[in-house]
Amino acid sequence: MLRVLLGEPPRQNSGVLADAMDNMAKVASMLRKEMNAHEDRNHEYRKLEVWTRGLISSLDELEQSWFAAAFYRKSVVAGYMDDMSVTEQGEYARYVYFYKNGFIRVFSLLDKLGTVLNSLYNLNTSQTKAHFSYFTVLRQFQLLKEHTPLADELENIKNSYREPLQNLRKRRNAEIHYMNAEMQDDLWQRHQGLHDKIQLEDLDSHLEDLKQGLEMVCKSLCAAFRYSNEQWHKNASSQKRV
């Protein structure tokens, strides 16, 4: 959608994004077949299908936010806020909007994945923490010592992206709980020198963190839904043999 508005060609899914989309689509299709083949009295299949399709949409929106932020970043050439033209200030504001939208979506999407995993594998994470996050779900996997291959893969993915996730989390927390993340950078600079020009944050570094966050989300989704699909088919084959 955003690519069309920006005059860019539609996205062609590839790499880890395509893998994540494909694995989620397979599980959604599998759930639909189960609903058609069997009665879904408690609507569990329907709920999981809706959640899975919601994750597909959320991933699409996250990728678009990163793309739009990167698109507008190209128009920001001044190193200081005071040196920007009115037009460039507008481009910078649009970059900030989509960048912030992106890093908030990283953690929102992970928490949605945590909700799906908690339901799929009956982890009962809410008994540990009423309002749990994705990272609480990972700890619950380890605590229960169930589905160890999936738990270990998700934990390894999380650990391999520790630094960019920490950077994004700090900015997310500043944005949600304290003040606008970019204004916090400005405030820090004002403390250094009241009359100095405000230098822009490292836009490229921040965009790279967001790109890494997107990649981490894609790999986590791919691992979770690939494993779920494999487990489903394994259980179905066992039932047939019985």
TrEMBL record:
Report whether DNA damage shows up as a keyword of the record. no
Which intervals of the chain form a coiled coil?
21-48
Q: Where is the Cyclic nucleotide-binding domain?
A: 55-114
Which keywords has UniProt assigned to this entry?
Coiled coil
Q: What is this protein called?
A: Cyclic nucleotide-binding domain-containing protein
Natural source organism: Paenibacillus auburnensis
